[in-house]
């Protein structure tokens, strides 16, 4: 493959992440170009899988699309991939990094779980689901952002993905319920905080709802903190962009809080201005770390 074709394939993937996830694009576009391209290709695969399961198709069509994507992944795994931008870009990623195909299959399993959706009853069930649709993404990215992965780092990036998925769930409670007829809030927690499906249907935001929401948010924030405390395990050139992505995504939780927990009828997001503020704060943190390191060396 010539250089021009290779770049065109990565450009195709970049347009997908730029269109569908401004927060991820904002953070990961700060990686060195080769690593950024790898992230774009991985994101494009995950977005393709997500659209198979959540696109505006009939259930039967969604099943067909997911099966077709799995067949294409099988071909890719056999080094007989289709001649398409996504697969050509992913082949370049697999040729460059020590990639593992397993989390790509896990991602498809996660999307299949959405098709045959069963509301989680416990936090453990929610986190298991979150691994398949988001923790798996952390494992896909791991060889790109950490050239010396360890067992500890393996679990840490999975937990980051789970934190981000819980954040998604807390952001999209109303959308998931009204548009997809799904409730991702665990049944045990709904019962414990005495918040019913009828309350959700009516769009009630009361102390019970806020307490329930904050319990899940606390779990996500604990996982974010665990990841951020271990940021030094990543490659030096990947630390700031990944640290930034975690902080920007975590910022969605504060956006919901600042809007009075209105996530039943309103879509909450981190504004461009807020992303710029977070970016500046993250870079100050790393500047201070570098200064401290220099002082120690002296």
UniProtKB/TrEMBL annotation:
The keyword Chloroplast does not apply. PROSITE patterns: SQUALEN_PHYTOEN_SYN_2. Keywords: Carotenoid biosynthesis, Transferase. One of its GO terms (biological process) is carotenoid biosynthetic process. Pathway: Carotenoid biosynthesis. It comes from the Bacteria. InterPro entries: Isoprenoid_synthase_dom_sf, Squ/phyt_synthse, Squalene/phytoene_synthase_CS, Trans_IPPS_bact-type, Trans_IPPS_HH. This is Phytoene synthase.
């Amino acid at each position: 493959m010539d250089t021009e074709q290779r770049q065109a394939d990565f450009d195709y993937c970049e347009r997908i992440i730029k269109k569908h996830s401004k927060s991820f694009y904002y953070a990961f576009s700060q990686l060195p170009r080769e690593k950024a391209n790898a992230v774009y290709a991985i994101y494009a695969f995950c977005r393709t899988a997500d659209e198979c399961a959540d696109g505006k198709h009939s259930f039967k069509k969604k099943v067909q699309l997911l099966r077709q994507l799995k067949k294409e992944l099988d071909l890719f795994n056999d080094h007989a991939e289709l001649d398409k931008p996504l697969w050509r870009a992913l082949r370049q990623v697999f040729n460059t990094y020590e990639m593992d195909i397993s989390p790509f299959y896990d991602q498809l399993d996660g999307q299949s779980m959405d098709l045959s959706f069963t509301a989680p009853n416990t936090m453990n069930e929610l986190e298991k689901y979150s691994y398949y649709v988001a923790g798996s993404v952390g494992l896909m990215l791991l060889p790109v952002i950490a050239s010396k992965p360890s067992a500890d780092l393996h679990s840490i990036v999975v937990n980051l993905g789970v934190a981000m998925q819980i954040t998604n769930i807390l952001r999209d409670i109303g959308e998931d319920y009204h548009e997809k007829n799904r409730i991702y809030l665990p049944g045990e927690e709904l019962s414990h905080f005495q918040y019913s499906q009828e309350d959700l249907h009516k769009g009630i935001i009361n102390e019970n709802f806020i307490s329930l929401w904050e319990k899940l948010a606390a779990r996500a924030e604990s996982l974010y903190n665990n990841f951020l405390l271990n940021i030094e395990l990543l490659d030096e050139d990947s630390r700031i962009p990944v640290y930034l992505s975690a902080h920007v995504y975590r910022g969605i939780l504060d956006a919901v809080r600042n809007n009075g927990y209105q996530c039943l009828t309103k879509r909450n997001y981190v504004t461009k201005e807020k992303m710029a503020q977070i970016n500046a704060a993250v870079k100050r943190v790393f500047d201070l770390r570098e200064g401290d390191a220099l002082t120690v060396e002296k």
